[in-house]
Amino acid sequence: MSEAYVKSHIEHGINTIEFFHPQSNSLPGKILEELAREIHFAGTHDDTKVIILKSAGDKTFCSGASFDELMGIKNESEGVKFFNGFANVINAMRKCPKFIIGRIQGRCVGGGVGLAAAVDYAIATDKAEVKLSELAVGIGPFVVGPAVERKIGTAAFTTLSIDATMWRNSDWAKRKGLFAEVHESIENMDEAIYRLSNNLAHSNPKAMAEMKKVFWKGTEHWDELLKERAAISGRLVLSEFTKKAIEKFKSKV
């Protein structure tokens, strides 16, 4: 089984940050920590003009929180720490002065939808279905919720959150604004990502930084908000209901 990793590579002003986990690109605490660190570094790195966030493989972009880690949480402080990992990644993306392009090559679940929502421009394939599965495992999309709701609106966010077992296709995600573009193949998606990232790498960095501030206006309180949301998830994940739900869900995977 391949080892999980986060790695970055800079070429011609384009910083590609890639993550991988053998369990459908799920997100344990270590991967979340490394992602937040790499995004923060890319934001402060003068040679980086634009960022591409991607995952390895060609099936699942991100399956969300690691079930193994969720099941291993023993107390509230461990729960809060784990969910703060998602908060830190989203806040790093929000505060990063560089545009982040999301390469969404496959399905997004839970926290994976949060990542897709927090990038500035998501380019996907038509295989990129989305599902906010949190309620189905006894919690709720509390930490990723603000990012998803900001991108697709309250009505669509409510739909995804309540019907937590239903996949929505890439066309739905594009119509709601989660994806900026949807392509019929990985090759076409990558071509579109190359074109846009190359254009942005030659654009005015100061103008893009100012644009990013405008796009994220009204989110300045998220450092505190996402911590509060992490605390809610950290409490809920300890309940007997949630532990049984995760166990049942994990046995199906």
Notes on the protein architecture:
The chain is of the alpha/beta class. The chain is built from eleven helices and nine strands. The protein has helices spanning 29-44, 67-72, 76-95, 111-118, 145-152, 154-162, 170-175, 186-201, 205-215, 222-236, 240-252, and strands spanning 5-11, 14-20, 50-55, 60-62, 100-104, 107-109, 121-125, 130-131, 181-183. The strands form two sheets. It has a six-stranded mixed β-sheet, sandwiched between helices. A three-stranded parallel β-sheet has the order 4-6-8. Strand 1 (5-11) and strand 2 (14-20) form a beta hairpin. The model has no long low-confidence stretch (mean pLDDT 96).
Q: Concise description?
A:
This protein is α/β, with parallel strands linked by helices and 253 residues long. It has helices at residues 29-44, 67-72, 76-95, 111-118, 145-152, 154-162, 170-175, 186-201, 205-215, 222-236, 240-252, and strands spanning 5-11, 14-20, 50-55, 60-62, 100-104, 107-109, 121-125, 130-131, 181-183. The strands form 2 sheets. It has a 6-stranded mixed sheet with strand order 1-2-3-5-7-9, with helices on both faces.
Question: What topology does this entry show?
Answer:
Layout: E1 5-11, E2 14-20, H1 29-44, E3 50-55, E4 60-62, H2 67-72, H3 76-95, E5 100-104, E6 107-109, H4 111-118, E7 121-125, E8 130-131, H5 145-152, H6 154-162, H7 170-175, E9 181-183, H8 186-201, H9 205-215, H10 222-236, H11 240-252
Parallel strand pairs: 2-3, 3-5, 4-6, 5-7, 6-8, 7-9
Antiparallel strand pairs: 1-2
